[in-house]
From TrEMBL:
Domain ABC transporter, chain residue ranges per copy: 6-245
Molecular function in Gene Ontology: ATP binding; ATP hydrolysis activity
Gene that specifies this protein: tauB
Cell membrane is among the record's keywords: yes
Stated name of the protein: Taurine transporter subunit ATP-binding component of ABC superfamily
């Protein structure tokens, strides 16, 4: 199985701003991703998750430190890595099957490969269509597919060239809750079958815990690693895991870290502040503010 090993050593990244000093987005990030690992990054909006992933994809440069992928410094994108984004980004003029084969067909043209190579590629794309439950939709166009189906095509396309590293930036963020659950089981199955190293970004802590071997909690201003949590759930998982006390305890712990590091106020704190503000504005007491914990 082809699996990548990743090593970030004190990687820093700033973005220039017009009339302000540069914005430090990643501050000396050090992190190792083991071959075959499923690593999930979580953290408040703006803490640098996508930037970290884009650097790993070779789509963004970093300023300081070192990023080593399978023993080599990363200087740009490569066929060893594939990325899946939140928005499906399929080619609307190609069928499902041709979307999946597209990169391989380009390679055949570019590298002057033989018809045998094309046949091998067809075998792979057919197998991926089956794996993704898309065989019946092979000749559909993207506008004939649901969001979940489109994202399955995008994942199949990313897997087509057998990447050693699959990078996913909130890939299920636009899907409804039921479709997300199906996608979670599917992506775990794919991970076990293909053995690819996966680095996955999400806002959703439950998703992170269900999918990952480890969860990295990032903190903002400047973007950095706050903590890393080893998940003790083993490789076989089912949806009932999400209601076990162990799962819920880790979920609570991570949510707490995200709140603390981002300086986010809870709903209750915000409501109290709002009540005080209204009280001082109107001279009266605001009745009955809602009480509740945010999950
Ligand atoms: N190309 C860019 N130029 C300038 N600033 C940028 C650029 N890309 C990102 N930033 C800034 O860098 C910070 C981190 O952005 P990034 O997209 O990595 O965060 P994120 O953790 O992925 O957030 P979200 O959860 O909202 O997707 C943000 O403050 C963002 O405004
Ligand atoms: Mg992002």
């Amino acid at each position: 199985m082809a699996q990548s090993e990743v090593q970030f050593d004190a990687v820093s990244k700033s973005f220039a701003r017009r009339s302000e000093p540069p914005l430090l987005v990643l501050d000396r990030v050090s992190l190792r991703v083991a071959p075959g690992e499923f690593l999930v990054l979580v953290g408040a909006s703006g803490c640098g998750k996508s930037t970290l992933l884009r650097i790993l994809a070779g789509l963004e440069r970093y300023d300081d430190g070192r990023l080593i992928l399978d023993g080599q410094p990363v200087h740009g994108p490569g066929a060893d890595r594939a990325m899946v984004f939140q928005h499906y980004s399929l080619y609307p003029w190609l069928t499902v099957k041709d979307n999946i084969r597209f990169s391989r067909q380009l390679k055949v043209v570019r590298d002057n490969l033989t018809s045998n190579d094309v046949e091998v590629a067809s075998g792979r794309s057919d197998a991926l269509l089956q794996l993704m439950g898309l065989a019946h939709a092979a000749d559909y166009y993207p506008n004939q597919l649901s969001g979940g189906m489109q994202q399955r095509v995008a994942i199949a396309r990313a897997l087509m060239n057998r990447p050693k590293l699959l990078l996913m930036d909130e890939p299920f963020g636009a899907l409804d809750a039921q479709t997300r659950e199906v996608m979670h089981d599917l992506i775990r199955h794919v991970h076990q079958l293909e053995g690819t190293t996966i680095v996955f970004v999400t806002h959703d802590v439950e998703e992170a815990l269900y999918l990952g071997d480890r969860v990295v909690v990032m903190a903002p201003k400047p973007g950095r690693i706050d903590s890393v949590v080893d998940l003790p759930f083993g490789r076989r998982r089912d949806q009932d895991l999400k209601i076990t006390p162990e799962f819920l305890a880790i979920k609570r712990q991570i949510l707490q870290r995200i709140r603390e590091t981002s300086g986010m106020k809870t709903d209750l704190e915000q409501l109290e502040q709002l009540s005080k503000h209204l009280e001082s504005a109107t001279g009266s007491t605001v009745m009955n503010t809602a009480q509740g914990d945010i999950a």
